[in-house]
Amino acid sequence: MNDAQDADEAVNQGWFSVRCVFQYxxxxxxxxxxxxxxxxxxxxxxxxxxxxxxxAEYANEVDRSYLGFAQAYRMFDELGHGAEVYxxxxxxxxxxxxxxxxxxxTGEERQGTLGEPAADQQVQRRSTASNHEEQGTTS
Length: 139
Description:
The protein is α+β, with helices and mostly antiparallel strands.
């Protein structure tokens, strides 16, 4: 490429976050990992290609497999404190507490609750979904 092409490509590049899903081990119960990485690319296809190449390397590090599932999001904010790096919208008939329980808080996640000792949890959550379910509220 020449300098003009390089400059055009740099202007057309954006930041993309890509979520890839991995499976650990080969015997049930399986552990699944959702991992979001950030890429500078000219298109969704280019960002996913970069992420999947990295996912293959990541999967080879330990006993895990890349499941070939990637979701990309073109980021509109500049990277920085509070920037939105991923968003996925889904239609559902479920009320809020049931939606969270079905998709994000099934009880099988390896996570802790904010305000409790972290132990070995990689993810901390804040949830009042169980309180809403018990009270029958949806806000």
